[in-house]
Design brief:
8-stranded parallel beta sheet, 14 helices, Rossmann fold, 6-stranded parallel beta sheet, alpha/beta
Length: 427
C-alpha cells in the first residue's frame, strides 16, 4: 500500500482464524488496561466491552478525570484512578509507580495491557515486579519521533524499558512496527501487529455516510466547502501547517470553512497563545472543543485533513473513511498506513502547507474524484477495519496469551501433586 510498509516476512503478524472458546480459559480471567490520561479513555469503550463480552473481568486504570468515570459506566467495567504526569516528573512518577504496583499486587490480574508512554513505562515496571503472567505493551505511537535532545533520549529509554517489561509489544501499524525496529525498542520477535493494524477498528454502522445537521447548527452556509480536522490541537498534529494551508486555500475558495473538532492539549507540544488566537478569532474557523461522539461531524465535512508529524494509526482517518469522506494525510509513521494513495485519499509530505492546499483543491475541484475516493474509502475500511473483526482478533489473541501462560502452571501443579502422592505411597 505504501513504500514504508514492512515486508510481511520480516514481521510478526497475528490473524485470528478460530477464536478461543471462553470455556478453555481460566475462570473469568482478569485483564487490567491502563492509559495515562483520562482523555484517552474516550477511545476505549468498544475495546473494554469486547473483552468483557469475551469472558474477561475488566479493570481500567488512568489518571483521575470525568472521562475515566464515564467510560467505566458506559462499558460497565470497574475503574481505578492514579495520578500520572504526562511529562517528566521523577518525584510524581515514583509515587505513581508505587501506587500502580500496590494496585496490581491487590488485583492480581492474569494479563495487563498498558499503552501511552507514561502508563506504559510505570505500568510495565509495576506489572513485571508483581510477576503478572501475561504483559502486553500496546504501542500507539512514538512521541520521541518529534522530540529533540535529552527529551528524545529519555523517551527512547522509556520506550525500551516499557518493551523490556512486556512479553509482547503490539504495534498499531506496520510503519510503526518498522520504526520501532529501527529505533531498537524491542527485538523483532517481541514486536508484532494484529491483523492489518489499528487498536479498535471502526464501527461502520455508527460512522457511515449520510446527512448531518451539524453544519446548520454551527452556522455554516449550505453548499460551501468544509475542511475538517478531528483530534488534539497540537503542534505534532500539524495544526500550524493546517492554519497556513487554510489561509492559502481561501485565495481560491473564499467561502470555505475550517471545522476543528478537538481540544487544546495541555501537554508540552500544545499550541501557543498566538496560534490559539488565530483559531478563535477567524470568522471561518470553527472550533468545537472536545466532542465525545464525532460521527455526525464527519458527515458535515467535504474533506478531512490530518497533517500530523507522527501517528500510531490514526482513528480519525478510519472514521472519516467509514463516513465516506476522502482524506488528506501525511507520509508520517502511522498515517501512511491509513490511506491508499490516490484511491481513498491523498498523501503529502509533512510540514508543507502549500502541499495541503494543493491536495485540498484537487479533491474539491473534482467532485467525481471526491465521490470515488469516498466510496473506495468506506469499502476499504469495511473490508479491513470493521471493529467487530479487529476487536474479535484482539480478544482471541489475548485469550490465547492467558491460556498459554496458565498452561505451564497447571502442568507444574500436576507434577507437584504427582510427586507428593508418590511420597505418600512410599511412606
Amino acid at each position: 500500500m505504501n513504500s514504508d510498509a514492512v515486508d510481511h516476512n520480516s514481521e510478526s503478524t497475528f490473524h485470528a482464524v478460530n477464536r478461543m472458546p471462553v470455556a478453555l480459559l481460566p475462570q473469568r480471567p482478569h485483564i487490567l488496561i491502563g492509559v495515562t490520561s483520562s482523555q484517552t479513555c474516550v477511545i476505549l469503550p468498544d475495546r473494554l466491552r469486547a473483552f468483557r463480552d469475551g469472558g474477561f473481568h475488566v479493570s481500567l486504570l488512568s489518571a483521575p478525570g470525568e472521562l475515566l468515570n464515564r467510560t467505566g459506566q458506559d462499558a460497565s467495567v470497574e475503574t481505578f484512578a492514579i495520578s500520572m504526569q504526562r511529562g517528566i516528573s521523577p518525584a510524581s512518577d515514583c509515587i505513581a509507580l508505587f501506587r500502580i504496583w500496590r494496585l496490581i499486587r491487590r488485583l492480581k490480574p492474569d494479563i495487563v495491557e498498558f499503552s501511552t508512554p507514561k502508563a506504559g513505562l510505570l505500568g510495565g515496571i509495576a506489572a513485571r515486579l508483581c510477576g503478572v503472567p501475561a504483559r502486553i505493551y500496546l504501542l500507539r505511537g512514538l512521541k520521541l519521533e518529534t522530540a529533540e535532545g535529552l527529551k528524545r533520549i529519555f523517551l527512547l529509554g522509556a520506550e525500551w524499558m516499557s518493551a523490556r517489561c512486556a512479553h509482547q509489544v503490539i504495534c498499531n501499524s506496520r510503519s510503526l512496527l518498522k520504526r520501532s525496529m529501527e529505533y531498537g525498542i524491542a527485538s523483532q520477535s517481541k514486536l508484532m501487529i494484529l491483523g492489518e493494524g489499528s487498536s479498535n477498528g471502526v464501527d461502520t454502522q455508527r460512522f457511515s455516510p449520510g446527512s448531518s445537521g451539524i453544519a446548520e447548527q454551527l452556522g455554516i452556509e449550505k453548499g460551501v466547502p468544509v475542511i475538517g480536522f478531528v483530534g488534539r490541537l497540537t503542534h505534532d498534529k500539524g495544526l500550524p501547517d493546517l492554519l497556513d494551508a487554510f489561509r492559502l486555500l481561501l485565495h481560491r475558495e473564499p467561502n470555505a470553512y475550517l471545522l476543528l473538532v478537538g481540544w487544546f492539549d495541555a501537554a508540552e507540544d500544545a499550541l501557543d497563545r498566538r496560534l490559539r488566537e488565530r483559531i478563535e478569532s477567524h470568522p471561518q474557523v470553527i472550533h468545537t472543543g472536545f466532542v465525545q461522539d464525532t460521527s455526525a461531524y464527519y458527515r458535515a465535512m467535504d474533506v478531512l485533513v490530518l497533517p500530523s508529524w507522527r501517528e500510531g494509526f490514526p482513528n480519525a482517518v478510519l472514521e472519516a473513511a467509514a463516513s465516506g469522506v476522502p482524506v488528506v494525510a501525511t507520509h508520517c509513521t502511522g498515517s501512511c498506513d491509513a490511506v491508499v494513495p490516490g484511491i481513498t485519499g491523498l498523501l503529502i509530505p509533512p510540514g508543507r502547507p502549500s502541499a495541503i492546499c494543493e491536495a485540498l483543491l484537487k479533491i474539491l475541484g473534482d467532485p467525481q474524484l471526491g465521490r470515488a475516493m469516498a466510496t473506495a474509502a468506506r469499502a476499504w475500511v469495511i473490508k479491513n477495519y470493521e471493529s467487530s473483526r479487529v476487536l474479535g482478533d484482539t480478544v482471541a489473541f489475548y485469550s490465547a496469551q492467558v491460556q498459554q501462560k496458565a498452561a505451564p502452571a497447571r502442568v507444574s501443579s500436576r507434577r507437584i501433586a504427582q510427586s507428593t502422592t508418590g511420597l505418600s505411597v512410599s511412606q
